[in-house]
Known about the structure:
By secondary structure, the protein is an alpha/beta fold.
Amino acid sequence: xxxxxxxxxxxxxxxxxxxxxxxxxxxxxxxxxxxxxxxxxxxxxxxxxxxxxxxxxxxxxxxxxxxxxxxxxxxxxxxxxxxxxxxxxxxxxxxxxxxxxxxxxxxxxxxxxxxxxxxxxxxxxxxxxxxxxxxxxxxxxxxxxxxxxxxxxxxxxxxxxxxxxxxxxxxxxxxxxxxxxxxxxxxxxxxxxxxxxxxxxxxxxxxxxxxxxxxxxxxxxxxxxxxxxxxxxxxxxxxxxxxxxxxxxxxxxxxxxxxxxxxxxxxxxxxxxxxxxxxxxxxxxxxxxxxxxxxxxxxxxxxxxxxxxxx
Length: 311
């Protein structure tokens, strides 16, 4: 049986929390902020401490971010949705201000983090909006607990083992899916901004739309102790995610309405191609003048598409 050193885990989490205090007066003030009535808290799940923002009133919606960002990307959408929804915005395990445990980066386990957050908040059913790796966590949650998801919007990204996954893996731009390990961590340590700039530049239609304030903000968060290791672990888990997702697929298609959103200069209609292999009711939207970073590159069109779908 795996033995967990709780004292070491708590010391690591305390360090992250203290780092968050130091960041609060610098980076956070430079990026779009959540409405003042949003509250933050940290919720214990199985093996992790998940940082969560909660605000608004009404039917619940959960927003899950992807790699290279944190839940902070959702501030403009959260402000809009909070007019008629209870909005729940976690930082995924190992990212942002959540803890950096040694394991649990398969998306099925992280779906358990989402379930634990909702259970703690006494929320049963939710709409789900996800991006990038958030799509993968969201799919595992929706497939594993379909009765809890009323609508599911996925933004620009694949899902391991679903649809044309094997062909997607051949894209040379996705070399980072296999990039990791101690040597890779040593190469990136102290150069987190250089590594992340590559994502923000190559996956955008116009790199200038991913502004400098946001780049500084996320680079600081990904330079926190354990953050880059956790990020590499997210990708390392893809093989297990594909196995888990094929098992979900064998049980049947998602029945809830699904919105598949792609950036015109990124996944485009491919998000819908992926999801039509996993869901029976899929709507397709392509966001113009945008690459992968939809909330930075064309937030107006992205927010409109999501709000229209959820309403």
